[in-house]
Amino acid sequence: MPQKIVIIGTGFAGVWSALSAKRLLKLADKEKEIEVTVISPEPTLVMRPRLYESKASTLVHPLKTLFDEAHIEFIPGLAEAIHTEERTVDVKYVSGIEMTIRYDCLILAAGSYVNRPEGVTGLEEYAFDIDSLEGATKLETHLEGLGAFPASLGRDTVVVCGAGFTGIEIAAELPRRLGHIANARVILVGNADEVAPDFGSDPRLAIASALTDLGVEFKLGSGVSAVDSEGVTLATGERIETKTAIWTAGVRATPLTAQIPGRKDSLARLYVDQYLRVSSANDVLATGDAACAVADGNSQYALMSCQHANQLGRVSGYNAAAMLLGKPLMEYSQAEYNCCLDLGSWGALVASGWNRDGIKLSGDIAKRVKSYINQKLIYPPDNIQEALRLADPVTLDSDRLFEELAQVAG
């Protein structure tokens, strides 16, 4: 019976894990001895970094042909339970059938989900999100339908709850998306006293200036205590009338991390070693948003972003195959970090360094870089040979990559 690598998830880390494992098995001429299986409800890659954009329903990339040509088995279902001692995964197929899948090596790449704190009442019932394809599509339908309501302060006001990366991108895009509303207002709410608190002073000032130019208003220094059908109540007691509250205040790792023994961080990610192995569970690797992995060999951990998920996936897939082949493992490393933030019709901004304290690019050229990333770079190739070539975990560092992107875009 062939050995089996099982991957849970078809996000960026899951897709590149599968392709990277297949690449190494092909090079070793061991494809018949070791199978690669992927579990997910649909054989698709949701372009999650783009869900702040319009036409959300189109932001999905089919994977079936790529998986078929790579001889990657796809199981349409949800992984409901992981049994690390037995090396099995309980799967509920989309058809309703339940089955237990065995593995010799497991890669958990099931991503993350938007965090909705229980202390904020009404989130589940009344707040929109752009965390999932379903959520983004629901928001788009709502935004397009606002014009059917009588004009009012609540109809014309959209409140974005969370002034971090995701909140900034959707707030910057909303003035364009609300062009059919004559007196539209966009209000960005954040706990911190400044917008973009995770950025350095120069990028932060540039981001605030761009949002102001776009007409975005700020309510900073206070969180949200409640959301209902007609408004948002801040922790200060202030109330903002709105029919549209968008929750962007952070994510947490997949609940499946709780089923794997081992230490987790505050975001429920599994701590992994330099090879992305979970030390407390034999033959289990965590990757993407499920992994708390040191990226620079020192103190910086990979972020919950596709920039890190792509490389985490390549390394986890390679190492899963290498473990079964008895080959040396590869250390995960992304020493450099550059953050590319979309700022709507104003342009974009590329902040450099782990502290995001320098501006590498801004305005129109940064927008061209961001557009190239969103519309081309993050999509896996349709050609299987090109996809396997790009699955090589030895890749450009972030600084060199952004230099090349600037040349392409400029």
UniProtKB/TrEMBL annotation:
Domain FAD/NAD(P)-binding: 4-311
Gene3D superfamilies xref list: 3.50.50.100
Superkingdom of origin organism: Eukaryota
Pfam families: Pyr_redox_2 (PF07992)
Cited SUPFAM superfamilies: FAD/NAD(P)-binding domain
Molecular functions per Gene Ontology: NADH dehydrogenase activity
InterPro entries from the UniProt entry: FAD/NAD-bd_sf, FAD/NAD-binding_dom, NDH-2
Keyword Oxidoreductase belongs to the record: yes
This protein's UniProt keywords: FAD, Flavoprotein, NAD, Oxidoreductase
Database matches in PANTHER family: NADH DEHYDROGENASE (PTHR43706), NADH DEHYDROGENASE-LIKE PROTEIN RV1812C (PTHR43706:SF45)
Family stated for the protein in its record: Belongs to the NADH dehydrogenase family.
Name this protein carries in UniProt: FAD-dependent pyridine nucleotide-disulfide oxidoreductase
